Amino acid sequence: MAVLISAIVVLTGCVNATVDEMTFLEPTEGIGDRSVVILGRRHAPDYETEFEFIECVGDHIRTGDPSITVIGERQFLDTLYPWFEPRTAPLRTEDIDTLLKEAPVAKELSALKLEYMVWIDGTTVETNSSGSMTCGVGPGGAGCFGFGTWGEASDYEATIWGLSDKAEVGRIAANTSGQSYMPAVVVPIPIIAPVQGTACDSLGDQLLKYLSAQY
Amino acid sequence: MVAHSLDSMTSDRKGLLLLISLLVLLSSGCGTRQVVVEGRFPSPLMEPLPITLGVVYSDEFANHEFYDEAVGRNESDWLVRTGDAQVEFWNTLLGGMFERVVIIKDHDTLHAIDAPIDAVLIPYVEDLQYTIPLHTNIKVYEIWMRYRFRLVDVSSIHDHDNGDISYYPTESFADFQLSAYGKTPTAFLQSDEEAVNLAAVVALRDAGAHFATAFERVPEVATWLQTIEDKTRDQ
After folding, report:
1. pTM for this one?
2. Which of A17, B24, B60, B203 is geometrically suited to a Cys-Cys bond with B182, CB 3.0 to 4.6 A?
3. DSSP assignment of B39-69, as one string?
4. In a mutagenesis test of the A interface, which of B4, B45, B188, B206 is the best target, namely the one with the most A β-carbons within 10 Å?
5. A103: distance to nearest CA of chain B, Å?
6. What residue segments make up the domains of chain B, in order of their start?
7. If you classify domain B32-234 with CATH, what class do you get?
């Protein structure tokens, strides 16, 4: 049993991660009482950045430094409707000026004390899968037999916009990949590679370093 | 193990249970899957136009539904009812875009109007299409809608003895279309119905975003708004 648990612990760590970072105008004292919002890009036809991933990065920052105010994405989208929908969301920092010409938008952003807007673009996809598993139920019980494996890859890029400077102040990319396994001898044992979770932690850590005075 | 379990079923009761299970399994792909679109729609954050707008929702619009008959044995019929959500959504959007909105339902509401109405908006859903992963092999649910909007003068709304109201489309001074698109990816523990509903809500939000940002840019609408502005300035 101990060997099995050890094997699971080792295999769950089987994720490769690469993080690239390029930031400038870092706030040396942190962002103080100002706030940050993390938003997903959703204008591509074949994928959209998952709401759950955005929530995960936001939670990572909140947990890492509770003094940072991270505005929830759904709350932000509803409050600022219709200016941040996939069709209308600003794609370049030059669009911030156009957006601020709408008086209610400028007033709302000011009320939120918004200093940074972080746009995350990317997704997690399944890259391969193989194996087979058969499950059955009989009077004597139920069980499965077989082996399955699948690979996942996450590719996310965060672009940080500084609203005071109305400029891009950083770009962070996280690429992760990993292979999950599911052997089954009566009971299936999922050995999941936390591919998306690692990408979330990687981006969250880098954003914390940028935004927080503690890191 | 499955084979063993089947062999062991010897009693009539088990046989009957198996038959029922098989019938349920076989019929699961044949029924109609129904979605009554429901969602939470935010009010738009914008300066309301200083206009009193009348709105007529036709019965067809207020009860809008989309029915798609299955083509293959493994597919289901789909019935997507968007009417209630359409009315709720457009009431919220227009209420935030214009200073005053009057819903004109029938003869009584037409004659109960106590303030001058600048124009009456009549929306239509001209087309709605959807795709689910079964159709495309892409793990995304999509809804696409095409709307048509007509603006008429309130004097062009005619009432009838039975209480109904109507207008002649040729009397509209603005007639424009816009499309809306919503998609949602497949998600763990999310049914097809939930995903189609979510895609419809995203499409409605997109329709609102499109309408709110494009309305004043429609040439006939821009001319009409300019006329109202000039009239207000002269007064």
Report:
1. 0.84
2. B203
3. ---PPP-SPPEEEEEEE---HHHHT-EEEE-
4. B45
5. 8
6. 1-30, 32-234
7. alpha beta
